[in-house]
Please model this.
Amino acid sequence: MLQTIRRLLIRSGGFRLERELPGGICTHDINAPSQGTQWNYIDQLLEPIRTGKYAAVAATSDAFASYEKRRIAAAKTTIWGSGCTSWYLDSEGVPSSWPWTYSRFAEEMTKPKLEHFSYR
Model:
């Protein structure tokens, strides 16, 4: 998810995805495997849109708020949250990158928890 991306809009062939995305591993091309993992996750969310069943998908407010609470608490315990100066830090000094392990990231990105999303 590259960084904490608040909103991603994908427009392609008439379908649109609006989705809150979790903080990413990082933004560099060297992490292409994580980008593929992210796209596979998004692609699964797009399937009902591709088939014409829905026009858009978004994370529920509750799911995103719960995720952000956990992410912020974990981010504060990383090296990025130790008081350094970094572009990964938001205006409150909280790192915007994924704070957990890559293996957890890969596991989380295996399959969306559809109960955390709403389609319309």
